[in-house]
Structures are given as structure tokens and as C-alpha cells.
Amino acid sequence: MRNFIIKRVAISVVILLCVTVIIYGLVRAMPGSYVETMAIQLSSLPGAKPYEEWLAQLEADYGLDKPFLVGWFTWIKEFCTGNFGDSWKYTIRVIDKFNDVIGVSFVMGAVSLVLQLIIAIPLGIIAATKQYSKADYAISAGALVGISLPTFFFASLLKLVFAMKLGWFETHGLVGRNFAQLSPSGQFWDMAHHLVLPIVTLVIISIGSLMRYTRTNMLEVLNADYIRTARAKGLSEGRVIYHHAFRNTLIPLVTMVGGSLPGLFSGALITETLFSIPGIGYTSYQAMLAGDIPFTMFYLTFLAVLTLAGNLISDILYAVVDPRVRLA
Known about the structure:
The chain is mainly alpha-helical. It has two domains: about 1-80, no CATH class; about 100-320, MetI-like fold. Helices cover about 75% and strands about 0% of the residues. The mean pLDDT is about 85.
């Protein structure tokens, strides 16, 4: 296992370097107006350097005045030392802004993932064990609706019904007007109240695929020879399903769950933007609109790291859930 992990990490590093080349190339291909606009803003401050000096400094900071490979090496060297630069839009260090907003996205992602697992996996098992029954049809129809619903449509529908019509929740934002006057526990519940609709949106739009995936794999396992043997030996149906069948169903489920773990940190860009939740997804979207090159490059590289980490986690979990799997 140790050798396998070392090998996969080494491969992931090589892939990550290739991804950074692509990211840097995309930034180089962006219109120069972003750098020029930033230089104009900086030069307009009281006592600031002239526009030409700011433009030359910004281009030098990101190697835009050098050949492609030299510029990329300059940027990646700074990146590896933890120097991610200053955000142009938020006027603070990129890493400081990231630390401010990542917590909200993590809470939303973690709660929604737990709810997805608690709801989708049992429903998928019920649909498989009661194939072609009313319960199976109802669960399959619900899963299809969840898969088909666009995020922006479902989020808008929730806001229309529960925020505007019923007035139970707020349409946007993370805190209410009187947040500063509330006690610590009151502030906690105020933020939790604002996160209800975004989390419901994330759960509903993601739960359908996991339910169908669980049902499909459970049906495949239930038709295996060793399941028929277990039933022939007189084992109870509950033990056959939850002890023998479900444990083997976990193996393909690991791919989906392991791959979704990085999503805890990447943020839900569309959902956060629709509800104006200041998470990493919404913050990155605003930075991209403003042409914030430092924050955009950091966020894209961060997503690449999360993707590679998710693939590595999936491979390791294979051996954890199934001792028959040996990683050489």
C-alpha cells in the first residue's frame, strides 16, 4: 500500500505540473486589458507610481514579459513557496481571502454530503430489493427528477416558495440584519437558517444519481451466485442484504463518494452565487468576473489538486472496503 501511494502521489505531481502549464497558458491568452486595468487603478491612487511602471511590475510578477516556459517557471516557483500573490479584487493576500471563505463552503459541502449518503443509499437499497414495486417506481421517478432539475431552476423555485411566498427563509446572504446584536448561539442559528435552502438545493440535485447508482449495483450483486447460496443456507433476508450484498455494493460506491470528497472544499459555484453565500465558489466567480488573475490562478490550481486527491482517495478506499483488493 505504501509503495502504491508513493507511486500515485508521484504521478499526481506530474499531472498537476501539466495542469499548471495549461492554467498559465490560459492566463497568458487572456486579453491584456485585465493587467492594464489593474495598472490604471493602482496608478490612480494618491502618491502611486506611474501607469507604465505598474504595468511593467505586474507583467514581471507573473512572467508575462518573459517567454512562456520561463514565465511559467517563475510563477510555479512562487506558487510552491506559498506566495500566491495579492487579490486584485479583494485587495488582500489570496491565501487570506481563501481562509476567510473556505469554512462556509466546507460546512455546506459536508452537511449536504452526509444528507445525500443518509437518504440516497437506503432508498437505493429499498428500490433494488423491491424491484418493479410501487416503491421502486416512486424512488426511480424521484431520482430522475433530481437528476433532471437544473440547479438555477430548483434554487429559484425554492426561493419563490419558501422565501418570497411563505417568508420562512431569506432569499440571499449568510447573515441577517441584526446579526451583530445576537448572542454567539443566536449568530450560529442565524447562519444555519440562511444555509437551509442552499443545502437543500445541493442535496436534491445530487441525490438522484447516487440513488440510481446504488440501485443498479445492488441489483447486480443480488443476482450473484453467492447471494443465492446464502439464501439457500437459510440466512435471514436482512443478513443477506445488509451483510453480504451491501458490503460488495460499497466497492463501486467508493468511486462516487471518494470523488465527491474534494467537493467539500471546492465550493458550489452556482448554488453559492444564486443565494449570494460568500463561499469559495461565489468568491472565485466574482474574482473571475473582475479579471482577478492571482485569485483565478490559485482557485483553478486548487481545483486540480482536489481532483487528483479525490482519485487517490478512491483508489485507497477500494482496499479498505474490500480486503480482496490488493494494490501492487
